[in-house]
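dumping these here so i dont lose them again. two proteins, back to back, each one seq then structure tokens. dont judge the mess
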Amino acid sequence: MRITFGPWGETLDEVAAAARAAEDAGAEALWVPELHRSATISAAAVAAATTRAQVGTAIALAFTRSPMVTALEALDLDELSGGRFVLGLGTGVQRLNEDWHGVDWSKPVTHLRETVRDIRAFWASCTTGEPIDLPGERAPMRIRGYQRPYQPTRTDIPVYLAAMGPALTRLAGEIGDGWISHELVSPAFLRERILPELGASGRRVDVVTSACCSVDRDPAVARRRSAGMVGFYATVRTYADFFAFHDLAEEQGAVIEAFRSSGAVAGGLADAVPDRMVSALTLSGTRDDVAAGLAAYEGLADTVKLTPPTHGLTPEETRLAQKELIAVIEELCR
């Protein structure tokens, strides 16, 4: 498996420094999310600070930018990184799209399929001046009188799709170059729920499983650091099937109730998350515990994306967790 990393920083300079340290430790790709920062701006900072590792968005929101803007930003990031960029896209959830961004959520599978089609078509023909006329139910694209005067570094930038439900996962297997999970996917869920859907089309894609990873000599300390991340995902009701698969439906319900009654932000629910949830869904414990957890993904995932715990922690706590995780990556990549 490829070992890759999601850097954290209180500033963009710190994100870039963490990415550089992870690259030096042996991480083969560096992934940046879209929640508290813009994924594309963070990717630019990481690309400028590194020289060898791939730089990917994990993920950029697919519907909050137009396909043309996404395509242009990807071309610029690929140029900035010297051909190292990976465009990771995800739909987000309905509330995020409609309430936070004012974007219509209807038919996300159709919308994502057409968005990826549009982006690839734009990459292929944006420098020729040929018109683009792509009908669509959710993302039609009609461009005339446009010719990009700059030659792209590549016109076949890899497109990875984030998915958890069966329909989007099948779409990732059908049209994506890779699939990306959120931070809590267990080996059992990957084997039983994800891989059958990814393989339905008969294509081979890069399987990127993400893992919230907390390392400490005291496993109890490591687990408590990761509890806020689990609480964040547990507030999402559409993940009910995911938690039920792990026999954690009751625990998810308790987290949702705590979220509703306390008014706390989703990442501040660590106290409502029992160790059982953390142990089942994250790589948290001693270095030996983490190594054993990683070994369970062998033969299932092509790539593991390790990220430090962030939700509900102080910057100092996350900084310490990230430093320890990069040291583990260096051991793993020797």
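---- next one ----
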Amino acid sequence: MRKRTIAFLGILAAAGAVWAANSSLLAGQSERRPMLIAHRGLGQTYSHVGLGRDTCTADRIYPPEHAYLENTIAGFKAAFEAGADIVEFDVHPTTDGQFAVFHDWTVDCRTEGKGVTREKSLAELKALDVGYGYTADGGKTFPFRGKGVGLMPGLDEVLAAFPDRRFLINIKSDDITEGSLLANVIGAMPAERQKSIMVYGGGKAMQAYKTALPEAVVLGTDRVIPCLLRYAALGWSGHVPADCRNTLFMLPANYAPFAWGFPNRLSERLAANGSTLVVLGDNDGSRHSTGVDDLTTLEKLPARFDGAIWTNRVDRIGPAVIAQ
């Protein structure tokens, strides 16, 4: 009986130690509001119902509530003005050795053009109308047609327009050459400016980028699942696996409360290992990520934590986060 009591007390003590090591109640409340990452700046949002890998999203937008298009200078400016701390955008290499800021692998969905984005020069891409394909009523009306000519920027143009702002750049491939090319562009910038740039994309592209710029914060998409699984297995001890270091630690809002130490213990551990906690919108079981795009989802999150919130509607949640 005495041995059972000792064993029980030992288990209880161990459980208490794990709880204490992972409880944000003991970590205290952060005094800093969460950072806001504006996905593609400020642009039009769309329904995710029945969304496939190659589904055109421009022809399924919700009725427009603002005049901005994703991945444009104007959309980035509006996002920063709404409270974004970081703007995420997508890049493709062009045939003339530059980078175009555009999401889609082809230009067919959003523009009047045809073909693979990276098989065109930047001048060809800038001549297209990036608002051409948007419709909220099945093609009856196209509210942005004719308004997006020349609005596809080059990477250099974006960085010059916002010299003191933070960015998260998405390489849209797993191409080693592309990772090296982007590293050449960012590596030519002053050291302090380089610190304001984070990059994510295919694992091989990220490895090439990281090899060229060892101090950079990168996220290889092939590391996301291993990171989460290893932290789920070991995070109770406070250990941060190698896959989760010097990167972005992305958690859906509906899974986040179950992560060891969420929010403040987790964000502290990640920060000590060069990483940033990023909370996405709820995961519905599909492969498509959502953002914290409405106040209902925002209210599920802690009012204060030392991490970041991923959003497609910084115009909606930015003022609410800043006011907290």
